[in-house]
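Much of the work behind modern protein science is quiet bookkeeping, done one molecule at a time. The fold becomes a row of whole numbers, each drawn from a learned catalogue of backbone shapes. The protein below has been through that process, and both of its lines are reproduced in full.
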Amino acid sequence: MNTFEWTSELRFMVALALGFLVGLERESTKIEEQKMVFGGVRTHPIISLLGFGCAWLYKIGATFMLPIGLLSIAALTSIAYIAKIKVERFGSTSEISALLTFVAGALALLVDVWVAMALGVVNTILLSEKAALESYVERLNKVEFLATVKFVLVTVIILPVLPNQEFTRFKLNPTSIWQIVIIVSTIGFVGYFLSKKFGEKIGLWLSGAFGGVISSTAFTMAVGRIAQKNPGRAEESLQAAVLASSVMYLKILVLIWLINANFVSSLWWRLVLLFFIGLALAVRVIWRSESNNHESVPTLQNPFEIRPAMAFGVLFVILSVVTAFVRQSLGDPGVLGLSAIVGVSDIVPFILSLVHSSGTTSEIVAPAIIMATMSNTIAKGVYFGALSPSTRKETAITYSVWALLHVPLLFIRS
């Protein structure tokens, strides 16, 4: 099979195209905002081609031409920046963008093309989305931002120094455990970010999709409190809770695939089927509320905060030890019994401890995970019903039917 080759001619076209891309953005900004900016639809392609040309000379032996070319562009942008300051116009985005255009043009010849393409595209996006980015920063919750930064810093510091070996007879590997914490927190943060960004726009019901990515149990209790305070929105809240629980199955499937893909073949169709059953039940619930009250979507905890991440890690270790001990002492029936018990809370740590353990097989893992999700479904039905008396009957029917449909999946072998 022939592989595609990036010839010098094609790399030249990439450099030219990236220059035009940035130049078009700068030209449109110049026209829309009626102000002078460094470079435009002609200047940036020329800068990119200058970078390409200097890189070509570098390759054939004139190595000094590449730094000279970069310094010449730096000199031009410095003159432009000084001129801006004299008329009290501050900001160096356009000048730095021009330097980056030169670098992208040079890299289009010297390294893999995707590097130059990535630089050019990201450069253009950051320039064109200035208003959106500044608006987002104005709305940014500084407490949440600092919590996220702290988690990232702790991760960067902790992960490299953790020993990558197994300890105790339960085979606990600190590096693997922390990697699982990072994966779960990252997926939860994606749902949290989407919920914060789009929650008010899509309404309470559809926000359940994001809630299921963060924590379906926590989301169910949050919307249950909304139903408790505002009975007119009880059925809408029930829909949101059921939808969040439906998304939980897809979240579990993705996590299993990331942690131990060997179990996906025996679980994927079960989890996807339960997702569609939950989706059908969510649609089935009749939206009787005629209220125009746009109550805010419940706010869940940022999964990237250090405390919940550490709590998840501790819970994962505890359940890993308990699961291994139960399996050694009571065998497979004991694991199934434990699966039914852990369903009263967040089942993700338990499920991941199962698939991460080297001693478990698909014969017990699949039924144990289905048992845990069934138990969790029953628990969430009890939580919501206790908080929302007006929809207690509908809640009992919905969650009971859903839980019963788990039962056949416990006995199917694949």
